[in-house]
Amino acid sequence: MLALLFSSSVKRGLLLLLLLAVLIVPFVPQLIYPIFLMKVMCFALFACAFNLLLGHTGIVSFGHAAFFGSSAYITGYALRDLGLTPELAIFAGVAFSAALGAVFGALAIRRQGIYLAMITLALAQMVYFTFLQAPFTGAEDGMQPIPRGRLFGLLDLNNDTNLYFVVLACTLGGFWLVHRIVHSPFGQVLRAIREHEPRTISLGYAVERYKIMAFALSAGISGLAGSLKCIVFRLASLTDAHWHMSGDVILMTLLGGMNSVFGPAIGAVMISALRHYFDALGAWVTVAVGLIFIACVLMFRRGVLGEINHLLSLRPVDGRSTKEKNNAQI
User: What gap in Å lies between CA 322 and CA 313, rounded to an integer?
Assistant: First the structure.
């Protein structure tokens, strides 16, 4: 019992230290660039949203970049061409991506396994080529420059410090929503679908409806991440909707730990930091990321956060083994 309390206190202390460090970042830009940290927060939220499907529902999607990129384009169009305020532009992007996720889900769940994944990839490529040809997207040049505007007509987002705390608040809100979904009765049904879908159907649950809702929720939160990234960089580009982005978010999720709630966020931090601080290596950055991924797959089967949770977890005093939990402890 004491070991369990110690484990919980350690985790709580680490989270408080992390939150304190994140809060003081805008005031010490010489240590870490706030724009870079905002980018990391967007990818962390994107990875956690994606994990609602992969880790908690057992659905592999190769097309999640479609939600991330489409929300960025819709938000950028609403800000630049329609002149909407940032909160309305973000809402438009999230609503569009959630609706798109529901459409993807309704079409993709007709198949399972690799066939479902290929359907999501094909649909995502259709979205990509739509944005490539659309007249308002700027094609390969991207949509730029996108004005940041004033949040609720009061907070000037052209100030990087103001923008930083807005992105931080939205990211924490997104994390809370993911955590709430995972630990709700709805989340329990999703995990039941992942573990044994036929049994879940036999219990009377409308599995297809739950899958579509999971797609929509995951897409909507991914869209929030895409909208924030669009405002931070004042740019919406084809890179955001490219299939490489879908591959990156899968890598982040597997690296951090897909059987946890916030493990993918750690994976997002690791991948973003590697590509930022080792950018001078050019193409060798990809090799470094690949080697780290191989090492983690071989040595950290549960992902980085999964291994940390395992090391901090309590082992029974009588020596009997316990069944590893499917849910994250953080």
Answer: 11
Packing angle of the helix pair 34-54, 160-182 (nearest 10 deg): 20
CB 154 within 8 A of CB 162: no
Taking the C-alpha atoms of residue 48 and residue 262, their distance in angstroms, rounded to an integer, is: 6
Q: Are 49 and 174 in contact (CB under 8 A)?
A: yes
Give 182's contacts (C-beta < 8 A, 6+ positions apart): 52, 56, 261, 327, 328
Full-model pTM: 0.86
* Closest to 271 measured CA to CA, from 243, 240, 249: 249
- pLDDT tens per residue across span 193-232: 999 889 999 988 999 999 999 999 999 999 999 999 999 9
Sequence letter at residue 240: D
Q: Which of 8, 54, 23, 4 is nearest to 261 (CA)?
A: 54
Q: How far apart are the first and last CA of the chain?
A: 18
Say if CB 50 and CB 61 are below 8 A apart: yes
CA 330, CA 239: separation in Å to the nearest integer?
A: 31
**Nearest to 236, CA basis, from 136, 109, 167:** 136
For 219-270, write each residue's pLDDT tens digit: 999 999 999 999 999 988 898 998 889 988 998 888 888 878 888 888 888 8
